[in-house]
Amino acid sequence: MEKKKIRYITPFTEEAFFTVVKKGIADAAELLGAEVEFTGTKDADVQELCRLIEQSAADGCDGIAVSLVEEEKMAPSVEKAVQEGIPVVSFNIGGTGKANVLANVCQDAFKAGKVVGRRICGKFGEGKVLFTLHDDVEVLRQRLEGILSGMAESGVQPEYKVIVSGNTPELACSTIMEELAKDESICAVIGTGQSDTHGAGLAAKELKGSFYTAGFDVCSEILQMVKEEVIDFTIDQQPYVQGFYPLLLLWQNASFGIMPSDIDAGNAVIDSTNIDLVMAAASQGVR
């Protein structure tokens, strides 16, 4: 069988989150004997992402996996690829139904946010909650909406502020520290992504735990801070799944015409009760 050529396109190529995604891709590529390229942008440049989708179709890829960071804006480029006979699935970010993809392998962002919103109720005292987005993109806004919905369902409607903290942990940490210095009423910092959750943990360590923090996503530093109880918990969207299954789905479709189906990457809570198990899996590159 001819080797299939699959291209992954992501808005944040340098984010640590994608290290585990790439492990999933590599394992699937070895299993299936597929040729895979991982590309994208550093800073969610939607225009460039659209160009990469269209270029992938022009290059004759057998399948495209793409993070639809702004699904409505990227939908026309997805449609062009589909019209040229190239199967497209979304991974990591997608699932709104605005783009003509065959399937979505990603977390239900709103549902995951509700898990966080319900869980943080009662975890901190009176004061303002600072919510962070590492970039002002749709999936993070959906998580935030879910958090607020989950809190409201639990009868909690706190005073809060939302900031864009920046897409590196160091930048997020400094931005959060600036907000804390300006407003002493902030009693909790809740991240919506990896960089800002990591940054909130760095700020909490710097300020010796003077505020409550929790958030999303996994990297070795976040896991260590959960282990140390600097971060109360984080939500794992299982990036290995998001790397492995899009390639499998696209390979099956290109090889046998098997139609892909959606896969929810989940909203697993990582806290003090299961951190050792997760860290063991992380040491193998799959969490």
Describe this structure in words.
There is one protein chain. The chain is α/β, with parallel strands linked by helices and about 290 residues long. About 45% of the residues lie in helices and about 20% in strands. The chain is built from ten helices and twelve strands. The strands form two sheets. It has a six-stranded parallel sheet with strand order 2-1-3-4-5-11, sandwiched between helices. A six-stranded mixed sheet has the order 7-6-8-9-10-12, with helices on both faces. α1 links the parallel β1 and β2 (about 35-40). About 50% of the residues are buried. The model has no long low-confidence stretch (mean pLDDT about 95).
Looking at the structure, what is the overall shape?
A: elongated
Order of SSEs? EHEHEHEEHEHEHEHEHEHEEH
Radius of gyration: 19 Å
Largest sheet, spatial ordering of strands: 2-1-3-4-5-11
Number of helices: 10
- Largest sheet composition: 6 strands, parallel
Beta-strand percentage range: 15-25%
The helix content is 40-55%
Distance between the termini: 32 Å
DSSP strand tally: 12
Classify the secondary structure makeup into a structural class: alpha/beta
Unreliable stretches? none
Average residue-wise pLDDT: 95
Q: Could you give the topology of this structure?
A:
Blueprint: E1 5-10, H1 18-32, E2 35-40, H2 46-58, E3 63-66, H3 71-83, E4 88-92, E5 103-106, H4 109-120, E6 128-133, H5 138-153, E7 160-164, H6 169-182, E8 186-191, H7 194-206, E9 212-216, H8 220-227, E10 234-236, H9 239-256, E11 263-264, E12 268-270, H10 275-282
Parallel strand pairs: 1-2, 1-3, 3-4, 4-5, 5-11, 6-7, 6-8, 8-9, 9-10
Antiparallel strand pairs: 10-12
Helix pairs in contact: 1-9, 2-3, 4-5, 6-7, 8-10
